[in-house]
Design goal:
Blueprint lengths: L1 H20 L11 H4 L11 H13 L9 E2 L8 H13 L6 H4 L1 H17 L6 E5 L2 H16 L3 H4 L6 E6 L5 H9 L6 E4 L9 H13 L3 E8 L11 H11 L2 E6 L23 E5 H5 L6 E5 L2 H8 L29 H35 L4 E3 L7 E6 L4 H10 L4 E7 L2 E7 L7 H18 L10
Parallel strand pairs: 1-11, 3-4, 3-5, 5-6, 6-7
Antiparallel strand pairs: 2-8, 7-8, 9-10, 10-12, 11-12
Bound molecules: pyridoxal-5'-phosphate (PLP).
């Protein structure tokens, strides 16, 4: 083990040094991948020095997601205390299903869940668990909503229950997939329109629910988003909680992207009414900046988790009470410890530190929005109170600009669409950046366009 730890240490140092010198790794096309890197496996062991060389080549050619040039997805940066927790979780290799196998690590997960429940306003009967991503915490919410609408399904399967699900056209693609997995069916997902700011239209939602009831359907779940994937919009919880109460429909908040605003005094108003919902999930690996994956779901009534996810197994549950055998409320059986990295970070910086991490991202987004507003070469397509800054530069097609920046190893940034517009989506999620990094993003992009102007087919440039 000592030798592998040494290799790890050496590589980690090289990665950090390399990130400073080359924030974007060399572009390796998918077509060239197996020619450029020795990824082959063979029957025989590899010589140790060669092994180290191959590993170094692999890690240094891998896209760098922690640098000040990565804005491509909804995660970034590297919080060292969270990395420490993750490394320890790997070393300890506990499975979170039982107290016997995980011991005090169970306490770590329970504390994190309890604190989140307290912040949401569910200290009495709340509960929760971790799953391997926001898609799966959304799936858990859908299963609980399904089981809450019809208890028979768990035992007899689906037979014309006619359940329906409601979500906005701007919501994440996991909802239709989860409808397929849960047996509800993709065709029974109603996609509701949004307003000009990307928020679900409450009137249309009510109408669709009423129409469905009139035609013999049973509305089971309304899925709202706290931070839509492209614009970063927050659906209005309070208005919709009233509709869900009236029609007895499960209300879930998918906060995978921006649910972490619960930690911010300044921005938690974006989740006003959260305590009224049935379940809420968020990814600490997005706004909080822990390593992937760190996704948790909390529910107002912990019993609902037990109803949907408990299964007896005498070969597994051999000591302690259910409350300490977390497999009883989990989607999985064997489950890695994703709580530890969140706990090590939270323990070290306190809730106030988490608040700073969240607020910084909005501060950066405001800097970016100001920059765009004060520069006529940019057209803004974004909204306020969002960490997705959406724009086009000099009318250059966003898809082309983002792809060229990637292929030339300048910046990793993606594009998105809202209504008829396609634009660059610049996500200010890396709280380790500083204001200069935000300005530098624009300068790099502008210099790139200046020097590559001839190659980029520019539309609408004067
Ligand atoms: C709003 C929203 N929900 C769910 C997800 C899925 O989360 P994960 O990638 O952890 O499955 C995402 C991912 O970006 C998202 O933006």
């Amino acid at each position: 083990m000592d030798n592998s730890l040494k290799i790890f240490n050496d590589l980690a140092k090289k990665i950090l040094r390399d990130e400073e010198q080359n924030p974007v790794s060399e572009f390796v096309s998918s077509g060239d991948l197996f020619d450029k890197l020795d990824l082959s496996l063979s029957d025989h062991p590899i010589d140790e020095d060669q092994f180290k060389e191959v590993l170094e080549d692999l890690v240094l050619k891998t896209p760098k997601t922690a640098t000040n040039a990565f804005f491509n997805q909804l995660f970034g940066g590297r919080n060292d205390k969270a990395v420490l927790g993750e490394l320890l979780a790997v070393m300890l290799n506990n499975s979170m299903y039982t107290y016997k196998a995980a011991g005090p690590q169970i306490g770590v997960e329970k504390i994190v869940i309890n604190e989140v429940c307290k912040i949401v306003g569910w200290s009495k009967n709340g509960g929760g668990t971790f799953a391997t991503g926001g898609s799966l915490t959304n799936f858990m919410a859908m299963l609980m909503a399904r089981d809450s609408a019809s208890q028979d399904i768990q035992y007899k399967g689906m037979s014309n229950q006619n359940l329906t699900v409601y979500t906005s056209i701007e919501s994440h693609y996991s909802t239709p997939k989860n409808a397929s997995f849960s047996g509800i069916g993709r065709d029974n997902v109603r996609k509701i329109s949004t307003d000009q700011f990307g928020r679900i239209d409450a009137n249309e939602l009510r109408l669709k629910i009423e129409e469905d009831i009139a035609s013999g359907k049973k509305p089971a779940l309304v899925n709202l988003t706290a931070g839509t994937t492209v614009l970063g919009a927050f659906d209005p919880i309070e208005d919709i909680a009233a509709i869900c109460k009236e029609y007895n429909v499960w209300l879930h908040i998918d906060g995978a992207y921006c649910g972490s605003v619960i930690f911010s005094t300044k921005y938690k108003h974006l989740l006003k009414g959260l305590e009224q919902v049935d379940s809420f999930s968020f990814n600490a690996h997005k706004m909080i900046g822990t390593p992937l994956t760190c996704s948790l779901i909390v529910v107002k009534n912990n019993e609902m988790l037990y109803d949907s996810f408990t299964e007896e197994a005498s070969y597994l549950y051999q000591t302690d009470h259910d409350e300490f055998n977390l497999g009883k409320t989990s989607l999985q059986c064997g489950r890695r410890n994703d709580a530890l990295k969140f706990w090590t970070l939270w323990k070290s910086v306190g809730t106030k530190g988490l608040e700073k991490i969240v607020d910084k991202q909005f501060e950066f987004a405001d800097i970016a929005r100001d920059y765009i507003a004060n520069n006529p070469d940019y057209t803004s397509y974004g909204i306020e109170d969002s960490i997705s800054v959406c724009f086009n530069y000099k009318g250059i097609p966003a898809q082309q600009l983002c792809t060229e920046l990637y292929k030339e190893s300048k910046l990793l940034v993606g594009y998105g669409t809202f209504r008829e517009n396609e634009f660059v989506r610049f996500v200010t999620i890396n709280a380790q950046n500083n204001p200069e990094d935000i300005i530098n993003f624009f300068k790099t992009l502008e210099n790139f366009v200046e020097t590559h102007m001839a190659e980029i087919s520019v539309e609408g440039v004067q």
